From TrEMBL:
<feature type="domain" description="Glycosyltransferase subfamily 4-like N-terminal">
    <location>
        <begin position="17"/>
        <end position="178"/>
    </location>
</feature>
<dbReference type="GO" id="GO:0103011">
    <property type="term" value="F:mannosylfructose-phosphate synthase activity"/>
</dbReference>
<keyword id="KW-0328">Glycosyltransferase</keyword>
<dbReference type="Pfam" id="PF13439">
    <property type="entry name" value="Glyco_transf_4"/>
</dbReference>
<protein>
    <submittedName>
        <fullName>Mannosylfructose-phosphate synthase</fullName>
        <ecNumber>2.4.1.246</ecNumber>
    </submittedName>
</protein>
<dbReference type="Pfam" id="PF00534">
    <property type="entry name" value="Glycos_transf_1"/>
</dbReference>
<dbReference type="InterPro" id="IPR050194">
    <property type="entry name" value="Glycosyltransferase_grp1"/>
</dbReference>
<dbReference type="InterPro" id="IPR028098">
    <property type="entry name" value="Glyco_trans_4-like_N"/>
</dbReference>
<keyword id="KW-0808">Transferase</keyword>
<dbReference type="InterPro" id="IPR001296">
    <property type="entry name" value="Glyco_trans_1"/>
</dbReference>
<feature type="domain" description="Glycosyl transferase family 1">
    <location>
        <begin position="190"/>
        <end position="312"/>
    </location>
</feature>
Amino acid sequence: MKDPIRILHVVTQMGAGGIENMLMTIYRNIDRSKIQFDFLVQREEKGFFDDEILLLGGRVFKIMPLSISKLFAYRKQLNNFFVTHKEYKIVHSHISVWSYLILKSAKRNNIPARIAHSHETHDSIWDHKLYRVPLIYCLRQIINSPTTHRFACSTKAGEWLFGKNKDFAVVNNAIDTSLFSYDQKNAEQQKSSLNIYNSLVIGHVGNFSKPKNYPFILKVFSEILKKRVDAKLLLVGDYKNNLNVKEGIKALGIENAVIFTGLRSDVYNMYQVMDVFLFPSHNEGLGISLIEAQASGLKIFASDTIPNEVLLTNDLEFLPLTKTAEYWAARILFSIPYDRKDNIEKIKVKGYDIKENACKLEEFYLNLLNS
């Protein structure tokens, strides 16, 4: 039996963010007797998915973090990696404009298939210092030169990274729909385990970064709490390093109504707990948690900056960020109660089920080597 083809995915780290979850969902569902995933990460610390990757037959390689001040050393280490690992014929990079550096090095080392994958409509500009903006702009102008194939999670994300006149394939951020069926009995059990059985639960799933707009989430919830004293805010994700969120909660005096779950391997259960999903991001490539929330049948309120491709059901309502927190709170309270039913079949019809998408990507990889 032939050994599987090994695809090298390049990411910042294998944490619990949207890109990492998307990759792992594909990895779990792809035929691993034909295709195996390895990961090149840029963090020394252990990633959330590292153990699972090893169990599935993959490998995790680590190089130094990308730093503007140490760019020469980074490029040297990257080149040494490709010189050492000549087994790769396909490199699939997920680090926005910085994929240029990865794919340039891959090209120099004669790797024939070099994929850049855009997952956002900016380069985390909210987290960057102003001096990086010209560099990001320059990298966007040259990203296509070492790239043989271009993927994006939405049209908007593709146009941002590759340009409006470039061809790229939109790869749906598909989910394992079987995990998101709404079950009232399970919902009650999950609420009971969190001691919020008789509460109105407003939820959010995110990585606690600035683009997620947590100050506005807190303000909206604070307005809801004024009208519904039984309300709880459920925040799912790694909050440990975000002191600003904790300070904002304290400033609003809502400490007793906010629940941090931390990182969860069963995020699908947290959607069961929620009554409303709140997602006022400044910008998103697509927002995979919005796909998951729609699948589970939640009422969702999201900012109108998010690409329209994410609108798969009637349960999602876009609202302008120019509107006040009071306005958002009023729209949310107006929407409840409602008869909740999951949207699994609708999500499948729209092409966001992982089984179908894993097969397509598997076929794409195999055809690359046969062409």
